[in-house]
Write a structure and sequence with these properties.
Helices cover 56% and strands 0% of the residues. It is mainly alpha-helical.
């Protein structure tokens, strides 16, 4: 993809990625015969881990919704901000005693894809996120 991707699209892709991770974790635990309980996940910790992965956190908002108060065109940073927002929302729902095991990640992903300025970005999800993982690369900067 040669054209520049909107910062918001990278944040949405981070949100999509977080929901896909949640679903994959749940599926993998079910396959292994273990009982998975998304209500036992420490979402506050996951928010903090994403924050630590942001390379340039200088202009990151202090609270939810997490966003950059001044422009940040880093795909890497915007993906992590998207994930922070999802994990924050999941923690909020957990605190309200909502059963997170009933989360419909497919529905959420479909609706997030509809919000992308460049929906074809999602079509390359596996290429962007899975292949990079297999090759040991965590740097998303070159995806812009």
């Amino acid at each position: 993809m040669n054209k520049e991707i909107d910062e918001t699209d990278w944040m949405i892709m981070g949100m999509i990625h977080a929901y896909k991770i949640i679903q994959k974790t749940k599926d993998d635990l079910d396959i292994d015969g273990e009982v998975s309980d998304l209500n036992d996940v420490d979402y506050e910790y996951l928010v903090e881990m994403q924050k630590r992965n942001i390379e340039n956190p200088t202009h990151l908002s202090e609270g939810f919704p997490f966003k950059f108060l001044e422009g940040n065109t880093s795909a890497h940073d915007n993906v992590h901000v998207g994930m922070m927002n999802v994990f924050f929302l999941l923690d909020e729902q957990k605190e309200k005693n909502q059963d997170l095991n009933k989360i419909d990640t497919d529905f959420l992903v479909r609706n997030l894809v509809a919000e992308l300025f460049e929906p074809s970005l999602y079509d390359g999800y596996d290429e962007y996120f899975q292949e990079r993982k297999e090759h040991g690369s965590e740097d998303l900067e070159d995806l812009k």
